[in-house]
Amino acid sequence: MDSVADRIQTGTGSALLSPAIVAAVERAASTHLGREWHSTGFTDRGDRAAHPAGIFGGQPFSVFAKLSQETSQSGAGTDAQFRSELRGLDLITRRARVRTPTPVGSGLVPVPTGWLLLFESIDEHIGTDRARADFLSLGATLAAIHQARSDRFGLPALDQEHFGSSFFGPLALDNRPVNSNRWADFYAERRVEPMLRLATDSGALPPEVGHAVGQLLPRLPALAGPEPLPSLLHGDAQQNNFLCSPDGAVVIDACPSFGHPEVDLALIDYFAPVPAAVFEGYREVAPIDAGFADRRELWRVFAYLAVIAVDGHNRFGREFTGRLADAIRRYQ
Question: Which CATH class name applies to 4-120?
Answer without folding.
Answer: alpha beta
